[in-house]
Amino acid sequence: MELMVTTAFYSTNPGPFDDCVLYDQENHISTAIWEGQERGALRCHEHTSKLDRWMLTQKQIELIRKAGFGYLRLIPAISLDNPMISALVERWRRETNTFHLTVGEMTVTLEDVAYLIGLPIDGDPVIGVTYTSCHAVCVKYLGRAPDPRNTSGGMVKLSWLKDTFSHCPVDASIEEVECYTRAYLLYLVGSTIFSTTTGNKVPVMYLPLFEDFEEAGKYAWGAAALSFLYRALGNASLKSQSSISGCLTLLQCWSYYHLDIGRPRLHHDPIHECFPFVLRWKGKQNGPTSNRDITLYRKTLDCLTSSDVDWCPYVNISFTVIPESILSSLILGRAKTMLVCFDKAERHLPDRCLKQFGMVQTIPENVQIWERKTRGVDGGVDLITKMQSEVNEWSNRRFNIVEAEEDTEESEYMQWYIRITRRFVGRPVPISSVFQRMNAALRDVANLVDTISTYGMNDQQIQTVSRIRYIVHGCLNDKVRSSPAVPSPQNDLGKKAKGKARGKEMLRKDTEKRRKKGNSVDHEGMRKCIKKGNSEYHEGTRKHRNKGNSEYHASLVTAEQSCRPPSESNDAESINDAPNYPRLMD
Q1: DSSP state of 100
Q2: Domain Aminotransferase-like plant mobile: where (predicted)?
Q3: Residue-wise DSSP of 129-158
């Protein structure tokens, strides 16, 4: 019964009921999907496949280690699962920098960055001067400049870097070795953590940060990588976008560790014997993924339960394999701060995903809205001045560590969360276009009558407004298997004439009575109202439903089956090879 009610309710309203948190819902991709406007899988831009073509000398490897990229250079070439990444993006909200899942909010934290790709998450912010031309900066830091065919404004082609600098001469001077190493580092960040949607170019503004390799190692490259990924996820979550960049290997492996969705079976034992932990997924993997599309991943996420989530996947790791430099900075995973990567400043909000740190989730503080700045077109701009407030917030990171609250229960959080989140992305049931238009009109009427104030009305007028509200909500509910209406934040507005306290008490008693008596009173009341004054409307609704909407009722059965274990649904087997396919509700 709970499955039926929830499916029915969210068929007409997937949320949010209160837009105080997700205030940009209109521009989010989930709005377009709900309206039947599919964009398909995103184009994913990352270029790890050619990193192994660089023949690095021992001198270069030592310089790379000093610069803080000793572990990132080990990043494997993992085939990206574009449909899975796209389905995750549909759950990302740029208002909170978190994934809004059915079980609560989750996100990629600084802790995940440190464990998975081994970049330093503590240090100076990655920020500097922007450029609109490549020639001068390339000559200064690489010893040569690309021809105009290999540049575009302040960006240089990755292919030029590889073709020109992938083999350092054996007899190269120290200055030449440094130039070749800077070229590799620019290629590395442009292929992974700072990959762009251009697909084959990287900004040269990172080069001056590699002038001194010891100084380069003092930057918080991991924080910059996460800021870049947050911005990329936020952009890709808008319905106007069709591609995504950033460190998608980090995102995909984060999902493998935390969510039992699309996770491949491994040839080797899944033990943490190597660092960074992204190496766990290196090499050939078992399990078919080619037959999975974004719709199937979306359905799986819509049916996600707590049993499908590993909130703390690193808890049993042997810390002997983790470098001391990483261990000493892990506390920053709980730092509520601003992440900086040149013009990209994004909020890191671990207080919204406390369960990822083994804590009980409580209602988080409101997110302070911040300005997402851009570089613009001017070259030679030092962003430190432009981003001073964001840099200051990062400097105070260790003073803003989120701590657990005592004597708290998660039930209060979930009641709040369901009101402010977008619970479903895909429709649990397909709806015909005619029926969809009629439902939209009824929802408009319901929203309108819910906003009518009964102040100053006489008893007859109040009764009329209440009756209209009851009929409209009843008919909306009747169209989804005649399920009882689920209380919403707006449903008791018509009772304000008797006083706010009295209205709440009536609603509580009515809800308890319906629960005890199987909703018989509610259905009887609705039938009497319809029979007494709305027979024409009800008859027309029934005719339309019987005539043009049989496919809708059949689809309800399909929707219910799609969230059952594999033994009850073949569809489930194609989504996830695991034996426990997620149900809609725990």
Answers
A1: E
A2: 68-417
A3: B--S-SHHHHHHHHSS---GGGEETTEEEH
Asked whether the beta carbons of 337 and 227 are under 8 A apart, the reply is: no
For the record, the structure tokens of 242 come out as: 């069709």
Length of the chain in terms of residues written: 586
The pLDDT tens digits for 405-460 are: 877 788 999 999 999 999 999 986 655 566 667 767 877 888 888 888 888 899 88
pLDDT tens-digit series, residues 34-58: 988 999 999 999 988 889 999 999 9
DSSP 42: P
CA count, 13 A, side-chain hemisphere, 396: 10
Helix, strand and coil content of the chain, in percent to the nearest 5, comes to 50, 10, 40
For 202, the enclosing helix (H) or strand (E) is strand 201-203
* C-alpha atoms less than 13 angstroms from C-alpha of 326 in its C-beta half-sphere: 23
State which H helix or E strand residue 461 sits in: helix 459-478
CA distance 251 to 172: 38
Phi/psi for 155 (5° steps) reads: -125, 150
Short-list 361, 82, 69, 110, CA closest to 226: 110
Q: How many CB atoms lie within 10 A of CB 148?
A: 9
Hunting for tokens 């803080």 — which residue is that? 68
Report CA-CA distances (Å) from 4 to 297, 328, 396, 400. Answer: 22, 49, 49, 43
Domain ranges for the chain, please list them: 433-548
ω into 276 cis (within 30 of 0): yes
DSSP 340: E
* Cα–Cα distance for residue pair 357/351, rounded to 1 Å: 10
Peptide bond into 16 cis (omega under 30): yes
Terminal-to-terminal C-alpha distance of the chain: 13
Q: How far is CA 179 from CA 3, 128, 153, 169, 300, in A?
A: 62, 19, 21, 12, 48
Find the largest Cα–Cα distance for the chain: 97
